[in-house]
Amino acid sequence: MIVAERKPLAEIIEMVQDCKKILVLACRGCVTVCSAGGEREAEILASLIRLGLKKAGKSAEVFDASLVRQCDKEYIDAIDQFKGQYDAIVSTACGVGVNFIANLRPKDNVFPALNTTFFGGSAEQGIWTEQCAGCGDCVLHLTGGLCPVARCAKSLMNGPCGGSVNGRCEINSEVDCVWQMIYDRMGCLQRQEEMTASAPIRDWSTSRHGGPRKQVREDLTV
Amino acid sequence: MSFTPDIRLFSCHYTSQQSCADEGHELQQLNFPENIKMTRVVCTGKLEETTLLKAFEDGADGVYVVGCPADGCHNVKGSQRAAKRVEAVRSALGELGVEKERAKMFFLPRGLHPEFVGAAQEMNKLVTELGPSPF
Ligand code: SF4
Ligand code: SF4
With CB atoms 3.0 to 4.6 Å apart as the test, which of A71, A121, B32, B98 could cross-link to B93 if both were Cys? Predict the structure, then answer.
């Protein structure tokens, strides 16, 4: 899922300080699962915005609502039901949701309530970890299923580097060196031989380096 | 200028049994401050962050929660969950530049105990010293 966390309140309140009618719009997708921008969090944020504005001597109508997702046109269209009730939307979706509102609603002011952090999973309750960086040319078949792009600080394709110490990464002794993990796992799977092959210089054009990406599935377009 | 704070208490059934004794008169006799409005909930673990924030929106100068001892909650983890939500509210108050002490969690034994009144008096003193809420 896409993992995110709420922005500092001061930053959010500054965005909306001159607004009079604010819609805090939750997303019932990934950000609900990671407890950053679902219905509950939007309700909390609406309350905090009201309190923050009141403290600053301002007043605004702040209400919250939610969409099934904010990354599909048909759900974004559902914002029509709130017509006339807001002069700004504070979206608690990930950056995709905010972009979609901006793309599809040229007259609506939209502000991000979250910092979108990474693609990851819930390691345990309340803890999420990054697992994939969406590089567009997956190498997990070569690395025992552990991602060196997202989980190695240097995104090395041939690791570990000289900074790997006792299974930890040189950036921080709390961080596992994923290349040590890959090495251990390949051994466990009796595939250590594969580790002797060098990965060639990588073409990163499928990743962010090639500019914004687009995917077309002819079989699904009508 | 004298100031009597508006304080809201959310307490679980088990720690606030005194409020029922003698139709509530017992608490008064024990000097439970009259300016504290108590809401009893089945378990403090049921409290949402929004309930506590709403109390501030409604004019509370201080909000506190009384739940069972952390290691002896009737519903196992209810008061621990409540404490996390109180902490989230305290942290948000801090972000808004407001004293975190305006929200507080107390873990108290179940049944009739003087600590229940003691916590109320402590909160009353604290919030009176802080003065009116900036909201
Ligand atoms: S190699 Fe690329 S696509 Fe595969 S998990 Fe890593 S970042 Fe994601
Ligand atoms: S120590 Fe390991 S994880 Fe850290 S940069 Fe080097 S290879 Fe990557």
Answer: B98
Task: List the domain boundaries for chain A.
Answer: 2-118, 133-200
Residues of B in contact with A113 (CB under 8 A): none
Are residues A126 and A137 in contact, defined by beta-carbon separation less than 8 angstroms?
A: no
Which amino acid appears at position A155 of this protein? S
Phi, psi of A121 (to 5 degrees): -140, 170
Helix pair angle (B49-57, A39-55), 10° resolution: 20
Gap from CA of A3 to ligand 2 centroid (Å): 23
- DSSP code for A117: E
**ipTM score:** 0.94
Domain ranges, residue B19? 11-130
Report the C-alpha gap between A81 and A25 in whole angstroms.
13
Tens-place pLDDT, residues B102-130: 999 999 998 777 899 999 999 999 999 99
**Domains contained in chain B, number:** 1
Question: What pTM value is reported for the model?
Answer: 0.94
pLDDT tier, B30 (very low <50, low <70, confident <90, very high otherwise): confident
Give the architecture-level CATH label for domain A2-118: 3-Layer(aba) Sandwich (3.40)
